[in-house]
Design brief:
Immunoglobulin-like, 21 strands, 36% helix, four-stranded antiparallel beta sheet
């Protein structure tokens, strides 16, 4: 690696995580050797403008956790914490010069405004400071890639294992990304990187998924069954992409981020035709019942969120958050007589909240929603949910929406219910916003 600086040199460079320090080698500033001290490389302010260092990737794959370095067939999947040593709060530009046989996939945005006379095959990226503070992932090696153009956004899909079927994965990702566009009529990010890994056989076609946000959004999926019929319509792809509908919400408030994603994994699939209305609401009713059984009457969902990874209270947290999303959406529609919804408010704040590059609490996110809608209904509901012990009460709301559970676990939908009009609005996909028509020259002009 080579890091060069213009203007004043930073005082030091550091990795994103202390666990990555042991894998740096041969660090030097010009001809001067650098030694890692207290987890950082201290630079000579009057020395050479460029710092060189090596990273022992093979050793990291052998010794570090899989979240830091892993191998998938002929590809190294690396946390950017491992190789991106950086100044504390200074944006940098990254220039990648890789052999033609080595493919590179990074979360950062490419710099497009390069001089016209520069065409050396190198790719330059703008690296924001979120790369230093939030988890991020990169891939280097031999893998296949394709792009999915959807809803004014682009999903770059990278197949990290040679045995993965491109046709099946492409159809799956197109369906999942298209479903997410039904929330606001657009895809929530301009560009997203998706890494697809091969999983051992499991009970579901997609065994696991996760999203990282440092430097730009990256979703990673472990696929066990890449057959098109098995993949298209499954829930994990939509759930993870639905996380991009909200800004980064702190882990202690996972009930909000996971709840919104779980709400839309079902609502968005219904809107796009991957689920029927009855299937969607039956999944909701079943999830609420499982969340209620898993809930602790001695703790709030906020308390459970803070300890979720220690207590494994995932069912309670995810579905209590989904219940909260239902309550937020329904209340917004009822109080505004249909003018506002969770769909509209979340889309209204998304771009500015993402650009601010800050982690939000659930309450702060609700405040942003209220600012967009000119109300205080979102904050009031979030505070009430955070203070309530046990599972949020959604039964009365479901009845008013006309959602009734049958003895066999299916549902029947009452279109004469008091709030049936709200349910109908929830069930409709949001159309893409109109774009101004461009004037074109007449082909018949003389």
């Amino acid at each position: 690696m080579k890091a060069c600086f213009t203007g004043k040199l930073p005082q030091s460079l550091r990795p994103g995580a202390a666990s990555c320090v042991p894998f740096i080698e041969n660090a030097r500033q010009g001809q001067q050797a650098l030694v890692v001290h207290k987890g950082r490389l201290t630079l000579d302010g009057a020395g050479d403008a460029c710092v060189h260092y090596d990273v022992d990737v093979d050793r990291a794959i052998r010794e570090a956790s899989s979240s830091v370095a892993a191998r998938e067939a002929q590809t190294a999947l690396l946390s950017t914490d491992l190789w991106l040593w950086h100044p504390r709060d200074r944006r940098v530009r990254l220039e990648v010069d890789a052999p033609s046989a080595v493919h590179v996939a990074l979360p950062f945005a490419e710099v497009t405004e390069r001089p016209m006379d520069v065409d050396d095959g190198r790719v330059v990226y703008d690296v924001p400071t979120t790369s230093y503070r939030w988890r991020s992932t990169s891939a280097f090696g031999a893998f296949r890639s394709f792009a999915v153009d959807v809803g004014r956004g682009m999903v770059d899909v990278h197949l990290l294992h040679p045995d993965l079927d491109e046709k099946g994965v492409r159809a799956w990702m197109e369906a999942a990304a298209s479903s997410v566009t039904t929330v606001a009529g657009r895809f929530p990010r301009r560009r997203v990187q998706v890494f697809v890994r091969k999983a051992a056989l499991g009970g579901e076609p997609v065994v696991f998924g996760m999203v990282a946000r440092g430097g730009g959004p990256v979703a990673t999926f472990f696929v066990a069954d890449d057959d098109k019929q098995a993949l298209v319509g499954e829930w994990v792809g939509v759930h993870e992409l639905a996380h991009l509908l909200t800004p980064y919400i702190q882990r202690q408030d996972a009930w909000m981020s996971e709840g919104v994603a779980t709400w839309y994994q079902n609502i968005a699939r219904m809107r796009s035709g991957l689920l029927s209305k009855e299937e969607c609401w039956a999944k909701m009713v079943d999830g609420f019942a499982r969340g209620r059984r898993a809930a602790s009457s001695a703790s709030t969902v906020q308390q459970a969120s803070a300890r979720m990874h220690e207590t494994f209270a995932y069912t309670y947290v995810y579905w209590a958050g989904t219940a909260a999303a239902l309550l937020l959406d329904v209340q917004a529609r009822v109080q505004s007589n249909g003018a506002w919804s969770l769909d509209r408010a979340s889309d209204a704040v998304l771009d500015d909240a993402v650009a601010a590059q800050k982690r939000l609490t659930a309450k702060r996110y609700a405040e942003l929603l209220d600012q967009a809608a000119g109300t205080d209904m979102f904050v009031d509901e979030v505070v009430r949910v955070e203070r309530t012990q046990g599972f949020p009460d959604v039964q009365q709301v479901l009845w008013k929406l006309g959602v009734h559970e049958k003895h066999d676990g299916t549902v029947w939908l009452d279109d004469k219910a008091e709030w049936a009009w709200v349910r109908h609005a929830i069930e409709r996909p949001v159309a893409a916003p109109a774009t101004p028509k461009q004037k074109t020259a007449s082909t018949t002009s003389r």
